[in-house]
Amino acid sequence: MTCEETKAHMKAYLADKMPARELEAFLEHIRSCPACYEELETNYIIERVLDILNDKAKEEYDFREQLQDRMEEQAEWLTKRRVYRPAYFAVVTAFVLMLIVGILELQGIHLLSLFGLE
Ligand SMILES: [Zn+2]
Question: pTM above 0.90?
Answer without folding.
Answer: no
